[in-house]
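Example (one chain per record):
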Amino acid sequence: MEYTFFMVPLSAIKDKKYGSDQDGSFVETLNRKIYRVHIVGSIAAIEINGESGSGYMIIDDTFSSVLVHFQSNMFRNVENLQKGDFVEVLGDIDTYNDSVTVSLQNIKKINLSRYVFNKLESIKNMQALNK
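Predicted structure:
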């Protein structure tokens, strides 16, 4: 696996060339393969299937948004979240219906000051990514 990028804006992974190889799904930007991302944003929508414990949420970071899906092993981490909450998300790149999505690995509710700090970090990281 070549790259994991932490705190990047969603625009770093949206509308990029994507694919998969022996290491998993990735997006490619500037000849770099990104397999995992750490993003920050607010929950724009959330849908949880209580029977299966799976579902999805749409995370928005004001630049873009992405669908984040999860399975039953992550249910306890998302069951108390709601639309409008600020969150940090760690996940693997995935594709669904010809678009890039994120498969949830970890999520944490954060406060506004942590959101602003991480937002600034993600913008700095985007600049480093584009070098």
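Caption: Helices lie at 75-78, 112-129.
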